[in-house]
User: Fold this.
Amino acid sequence: MSHARAVVLMIVVTLLWSIAGVVARHLEAARSFEVTFWRCFFNALTLTLALSAMRGPTMWRQLPDWPRSVWISGICWAVMFTAFMVALTLTSVANVLITMALAPLVTALFARSFLHQHLPPRTWMAIAAAGLGIAWMFGNEARQGASPLGTLVALAVPLASAVNWTVLQHMSRRETARRTDMLPAVWIGAVLSAGLALPLALPLQASAHDIGLLALLGAVQLAVPCLLVVRLSRELPAPEIALLALLEVVFGVAWAWLGAGERPASETLIGGSIVLAALIGNELQSLRTAARSEGRTSES
Assistant:
């Protein structure tokens, strides 16, 4: 796959991810954990069909022997799937997406703490700036008397994402990582999330209209892009994927504004701009540093 095609596909991934907020705003009766249950149920169903076609029945017979890293990654996916939809029912789309955009910086902190990777000064500055942006958003919610619970729930997404990425990086250092198929982890996450959400979702109240929209989210917004991004991780460097993934924030806020009339508050736009500027600046500098390093290597 060419680099240009991989970039285009990554943009498609962010477009698919970004429709969750606007679609959720058009639900009639489904709320909170019921939204999570139906979305993850259809995600798991789609992944079951897709993985069966891609890997064959042998993969399912080997389920008890799947490595621990796959199960840990699956738990992280479950937390991400659950926290994201619950947060959308508690706060604005913009707040959820901007909070989720902290994932690259939280991952950098986890890598520093658990993998002993060195963090350059620019990353520490980006972490401080992004923290300032999130604090600005929290302060605005407090001044308006709104509960910050939605933003706090959304913080579980970048935290789980950081754990997931740290585990994958740790596994990549081991020889067995080359034989580990991480696609089933997404399926595990969907099944766990649906199973945990079901008891909390009862009695189910979703209309046929809601189930249709949630089936769309499970299959098109979640299963397809998650499979794609696992594949693209072999084509694009992690900093570039992290930078392109930030487009989900831009697309998601725009969809919610245009498709659901959810205009973000000016304070949210200011806080979000600070977070995005910190993230984009850090990732662009990372790409420049990597390019210079590759240039020096090729010259020598």
Q: What stands out?
A: The chain has a mean pLDDT of 80. The two ends are 27 Å apart (CA to CA). The CA atoms of residues 57 and 207 lie 34 Å apart. The first helix runs from residue 3 to 17.
